[in-house]
Design goal:
Radius of gyration: 23 Å
CATH class of the largest domain: Alpha Beta
CATH superfamily of the largest domain: Creatinase/methionine aminopeptidase superfamily
Number of domains: 2
Shape: elongated
CATH topology of the largest domain: Creatine Amidinohydrolase
Distance between the termini: 59 Å
């Protein structure tokens, strides 16, 4: 803020507010100045805000009207002239409300990505929380394997996984769980449906747990029946691509180099055109955050970053194979934070 000569910063993105203040409610704005910070929220969170911010020096303001108007009025009261805001996180209408309350003399400075960049490098406590969230997801997935059989519904399996994660301490799923069998596995972001699993089908499971605000992300693929040779070959190639990405994941490397390492393996196996998404993404308070492990991403990897490594191949009308783990960039390389079985599992 000092480098950009800001008098104040208005934070509206809830994950960033949580990162800066520990407030976990669904309605808040954080106004930061060089000397203090004020969390503005509504009456529903009066007690919660005081409790969660008790160990900080931030003030709590309970607004009786629109939060953006209260934030603008505060900026006007402290005569803030140069104000940073998260331009990509606010609508034109919301910006108009904030602008109108703050006064015509306010000069707005787009300040996107600064907090997210800080969030990308995790401290010891954050890493441990993600590791525990990963362990919950791994255990919940392993627990439901006996239920994966011919006739089982994708939606029932997803419900069991979520139930198991909550019983193991998760506050909820990190996203809508994916259980995609047969031809539906060719949809990378398929959601669990009422489709029944059939004999001789691949089943893709993509799941994650939220623990103390932080997410995990895990994908495993199983085969119901005896896997044919081509399925085994493709599965092996995906595993090798993931391992190539892990070996490339180290400090000082650009994100795109990790993506390229996975892509080269699949291209060498004749599957390059079947890999239709990026190799991974940052993971933390959000399931998708900085950095992206993708083509063209020049982010320089640093120790403490946590990313997913999730190469996959997809065959329209047949199915898909994807393996995903959460990986920590260390001082010397990378380590997996998720430890579920990565080998091809054949069921039934």
């Amino acid at each position: 803020m000092s480098a950009d000569n800001l008098d104040a910063l208005v934070v509206t993105h809830l994950p960033n507010i949580f990162y800066l203040s520990s407030f976990s409610g669904s309605s808040a704005i954080l106004v930061v100045t060089p000397s203090d910070a004020t969390l503005i929220t509504d009456p529903r969170y009066t007690v919660q805000a005081k409790q969660e911010l008790a160990e900080t020096k931030a003030k709590v303001q309970i607004a009786r009207g629109p939060l953006l108007m209260a934030a603008g009025e505060q900026l006007k009261a402290i005569r803030a002239r140069h104000v940073g805001f998260e331009a990509a996180r606010i609508t034109v209408v919301q910006k108009g409300t904030l602008d109108g309350a703050a006064g015509k003399r306010t000069r707005w400075v787009a300040w996107d990505g600064r907090i997210e960049k800080a969030r990308a490098v995790k401290d010891t406590e954050e890493i441990q929380t993600i590791r525990e969230a990963g362990a919950i997801a791994c255990a919940a997935w392993a627990d439901i394997l006996p239920l994966v059989k011919v006739g089982a519904l994708e939606s029932d399996l997803a419900a069991e996984i979520e139930y198991n994660m909550r019983r193991k301490g998760a506050s909820g799923p990190a996203f809508d769980l994916i259980v995609a069998s047969g031809e539906r596995g060719a949809l990378p972001h398929a959601r669990a449906s009422r489709k029944a699993i059939k004999k001789n089908e691949l089943v893709v499971f993509d799941l994650g747990a939220i623990l103390r605000g932080y997410s995990s992300d895990l994908t495993r693929t199983v085969f119901v029946g005896r896997a044919p040779r081509e399925v085994r070959r493709c599965y092996k190639a995906v595993l090798e691509a993931q391992e190539a990405a892990r070996l490339a994941l180290k400090p000082g490397v650009h994100s795109e180099e990790v993506d390229a390492a996975a892509r080269r393996v699949l291209q060498g196996a004749g599957l390059g055109d079947k890999f239709i998404h990026s190799t991974g993404h940052g993971l933390g308070l959000e399931v998708h955050e900085m950095p992206r492990i993708a083509r063209g991403d020049k982010s320089v990897l640093q120790p403490g970053m946590v990313v997913t490594l999730e190469p996959g191949v997809y065959f329209e009308g047949q199915g898909g194979i994807r393996t995903e783990d959460d990986a920590l960039v260390t001082e010397r390389g990378a380590e997996y934070l998720t430890q579920a079985n990565r080998e091809l599992i054949e069921l039934g």
